[in-house]
Amino acid sequence: MKPNPARTLWTAIEPLHAVVYFAPEPAAAAKEVGLRGWWMGYFAGRAAPLGPIGPEPVTSMFFGFAPRMVERALPDAWTFASPDVVLRTRLEAVEAALTRLLGPSTVDELATLLEQAVAACRFDARPLAAAWSAVPRPDRPLARLWLATAVLREHRGDGHVLAAVASGLTGLETTLTHIATGATGREQVQRARGWTGEEWSEATANLVERGLLDAGGLTPAGAEVRRTIEETTDRLAAAPLDALGPAGVDRVLELAVPLSRRIIDGGGVPIPNPMGAKRP
């Protein structure tokens, strides 16, 4: 696929956001407030702006996870720590992680540009992005930067879910077609999403029966479905770029790419990873 500006922007800023999933500071913060296990911290931390929510809507919004995996974390997480506490400590922890990984860095301009992009987002049928957009803006530059990347990331992710559902795929089937593109691997994804081997095989058989997969990977029909999903995802993520304009997007890339490379090179985000994010 020809690179799309919306995809290029995602590639540039995703490592700045994804630190929250791989750096030790957020996991330690979740444990300190009483959350039990890494995955409880993940589900509670990502869903915290939605309030004390249960597993069914989170499974729906997060889309690619086996329901039982979410049910092991929610709503029990809220008996250990309130959403407000989880959110506050998560922001503090990811700020500490970025401070460690980036060292002395001036990010005020980048944070301001990304906040300008966030202001242009529409949140129709985008519950995760809408919830994160309602989080009060911190005063500290690195915290501002990370929160802006969180809103933009969930805005794009919500749009991706809409695109996949419109193409007739379940969360697991979307994951399987993503793996078939070579963007990530089964070993990075299956355990992290909680699906059994039987469920994986059943979903694969369904895609084969529909003519979207074969022994060699994506069929031409499957590649077309995947292309449609990705192009729709990029189209639905275009509003922030329109607000920045070409010069603003170029400036974001100029500022963000060196920071994201520093994070990856410093071990803050592994390559490969379940998201399929690459070193920009």
From TrEMBL:
Q: InterPro entries, from UniProt?
A: HTH_67
Q: Which superkingdom, per the lineage?
A: Bacteria
Q: Which Pfam families match?
A: HTH_67
Q: Which NCBIfam families match?
A: SCO6745_fam_HTH (NF047719)
Q: What is the protein name for this chain?
A: SalK
Organism name: Amycolatopsis rubida
What is this organism's lineage?
A: Bacteria, Bacillati, Actinomycetota, Actinomycetes, Pseudonocardiales
